[in-house]
Amino acid sequence: MELYYGTLIGPGQKLAEAYYNSFISIVVDFNDFTIKQAMQFRAKNKHMKFSYVDSMGYQLALQNSVKFLTSDKAFEGLPNVEFVK
After folding, report:
1. Is-contact 38 53, C-beta < 8 A?
2. What is the separation of C-alpha 64 from the centre of its chain, rounded to a whole number of angstroms?
3. Following DSSP, what letter does each residue of the chain receive, concatenated?
4. Are 40 and 62 in contact (CB under 8 A)?
5. What is the distance between the alpha carbons of residues 23 and 50, in angstroms, rounded to a whole number?
6. Would you give the distance in Å from CA 11 to the centre of its chain?
7. pLDDT in tens, 11-52
8. Taking the CB of residue 59, how many other CB atoms lie within 10 A of it?
9. From CA 56, how far away is CA 62, in angstroms rounded?
10. Cβ within 8 Å of residue 53, ≥6 positions away
11. Spatial CA neighbour of 50 closest among 78, 8, 29
12. Alpha-carbon span 63 to 46, nearest angstrom
């Protein structure tokens, strides 16, 4: 979602569509458990004002044993996080 949106408002729809189409086959599906875990994380850390999307992304990264890539300083110090600029 974020890649598509960021590209859509930046370089434009043609590149956004190309990116979307190249990544759609590896998109990770999520279930009720993931949604609940992500919202529990968000509620527990409500003072940090994490977005719904970032909360879901972080939970999915944890569940799939991959790094959560972010430039959001609010995630600094959390396990399984890698900052990108």
Report:
1. no
2. 13
3. -HHHHHHHHTT-HHHHHHHHHHHGGGPPP--HHHHHHHHHHHHHTGGG---HHHHHHHHHHHHTT--EEE--GGGTT-TTEEE--
4. no
5. 24
6. 21
7. 999 999 999 999 999 888 889 999 999 999 999 999 999 999
8. 22
9. 10
10. 1, 2
11. 78
12. 21
| Lookup: tokens for 50 | 């994490």
CB atoms within 10 A of CB 50: 21
- Kindly tell me the sign of the dihedral angle through the C-alpha atoms of 9, 12, 18, 19: negative
* Tokens (6 digits) for 58: 């972080």
Q: Residue 23 in contact with residue 2, Cβ under 8 Å?
A: no
What pLDDT, on a 0 to 100 scale, did the predictor assign at position 24?
93
